[in-house]
Amino acid sequence: MFQFKSIGRTAYFLIVPLLVIGMAGLVTHSNLVLHDTMDKDIEEIMTEKTKAVSGMLEQDILKPAHTAVNFARIVEGLQLQQYDLSFYETLSRQFIESDPNTFGVGMWLEPNVYRQGQPYFSAYAYRDGGSIATTQEYNTAEYDYPSQPWYAGARNTDQPFLFADIFYDEGLDIYTLTAAAPIYNAEGKMIGVTNSDMDLTTVTNLIKETSVAKTGYAALIDQNGQIIASGNGQTTRDMAEADAKDSMEKISAILASGRGMGILAGSEGDLGVFYHQIPNTNLYVSLVAPMSELMGELNNQVYSSIAIGVAVILILAAILYLFIRYMTRNIKKINDIAMHMADGDFTHKLELTSKDEFGTLAANFNRMSVSIKNTIQEVGAKSMIVSSTAEGLGRDAELARGAANVVVSDITLMSEGAQLQLKSTVDSATSLNELNVGVQRIAESASEVAVITRDMSIRADQGRSVVGEAISNMNVINASVKEVSVAVGRMENHSDRIGEIINVIAGITKQTNLLALNAGIEASRAGEHGRGFGVVAAEIGKLADQSKRSAEMITEIITEIKQDTASVVVAMNRGLTDVQSGTDTMKHVGAAFQHIVGEIQSVNERMLEISSSSEQMSAGSEQLSASSDEMSHLAQEAYGKTAQVQQSAGSQLAVAENVKASSAALMQLTKDLEEVINQFKV
């Protein structure tokens, strides 16, 4: 499957086609709605116009009906037999004279109503050129007016009047419309009919003068579909018989639909036929116009909507292009900075001056970079201090080890002296047992013991001095170890601060992931229109994941540093404990030496007493023997103390060795920390 390498291209090539499809669908839907609306508007406009024309014609067409009704009411008020034919003919003339469009007016009585045995009685007047004439030619069995449709219709209707079918007078070349009204006697019995024949020339002229659209026209049609008059001059009477029949069938079908409109197929396109029945008549006013003309405005609006849709698509595509370019540029800048940070380079700065989310993200990135850079620099400085302190601690440990070696050597000599002293005291005890043999030998032994005790005193003083120096050195080591411990503690605190900063970075990454997720959700809610933003939100989420992984890497490094620092702290605490133990031991050794010196001085004094009072030794042999036993006991104790001091000195030497090893390990850890820090470029 083809994959785009750029978010911008992905968004552009996904959104633009969707935008085009959406706009095309919108334009198509709008055109369909517009088409339906225009159809309704056209139908409504044409229907209103047909009603308007029908209203104008109704006033003229109803005049013969009113004439027939008025004439019938007049006749009903008369005593028919009291008036002769001329009277009724005069009434007919008067009605004709009252309306220029009235062609003829007549009164027609039922058989035997006017006079018994007279089947026909009528008075009919009509226009004859410029004058009004009367005729009796319809009072014949041949015409038999009671059987005529207009008369039969009036006889059977319950309405005040009715219209008969339109009649074309070939002699006069005019169409006439006959209105017939029934005449009733006092008992309500129909006794005749009055009629009024209207010349439709004025109506047809009005139809011909009515304009519809550009090339359309109006037409007057009867209920049979016959075209009485039309604006294009064509009537059913002018057509060939087959064409006239076909035309009447099509028009009758349209009228039968009752919709008020219909479509007729023409040689030059479909014709829209809109009709309305003239009230109280069987005539219809029809407006006919080519559908292309009626829909011309619709087509113009369709073209306009298409042009507007294309313009909107181009504008939106341009806006989308600029917006995507803006976003991809900013994302690229952020990605470049993230790559530098992932490589350990914190010398670059994200330059975004916008006030939107990218500007805020850039500011946070720069703050994070500065914070990490400062932390790394501070850790580097502290690691140098730790390295220097560890190096000093190593030198101090070396000095302590040398001093401990000296102490061990001196204590060994002191132990040998103590052993000699013990042997001497044993010999003294033996000599005392042989006191009876000779005082001289006792004196000689006392002299030897005096010399030995003097040497022991000198060596005891030296041992005490060495122990004092060892205690001073152990105090120095103790202070150095405490300083290193404090420095390591500060380094651990700085590691904790770095961990807090990394937690802040992780929090920002989490919030960024959450924002990307919320944007994805909103994009998903937006549907197709939000897909581009959903892709951008996913990329921001990926970028946040990269930042999270970088933060996790730094967290792992800091964790290792903290673990190493904790190891150093443990080693330093152990060294501090050992140094303190050595110091306490050396204090005990010093106390032991002090005690030994005191004892040796006591022995020396006693030996002087023995030497000076050798003459009295015989008398005090028992006391000398007791003193000799005590001296032997003290010698044994001194020998035991020197052994303890020798053991403590050995322990102190081991502690010094441990301190030296711990300082070497600390220096190695600081080197490792410097190597890790040197991976970052600040």
Automatic annotation (TrEMBL):
It is found in: Cell membrane. It comes from the Bacteria. The keyword Transcription does not apply. The keyword Ligase does not apply. Its main location: membrane. Gene3D superfamilies: 6.10.340.10, Methyl-accepting chemotaxis protein (1.10.287.950), PAS domain (3.30.450.20). Keywords: Cell membrane, Membrane, Transducer, Transmembrane, Transmembrane helix. Pfam families: HAMP, MCP-like_PDC_1, MCPsignal. GO terms for cellular component: plasma membrane. Residues 325-377 form the HAMP domain. Residues 396-632 form the Methyl-accepting transducer domain. GO terms for biological process: signal transduction. Residues 611-633 are annotated as: Disordered. PANTHER family: LYSOZYME-LIKE PROTEIN-RELATED (PTHR32089:SF112), METHYL-ACCEPTING CHEMOTAXIS PROTEIN MCPB (PTHR32089). This is Methyl-accepting chemotaxis protein. The lineage of its organism: Bacteria, Bacillati, Bacillota, Bacilli, Bacillales.
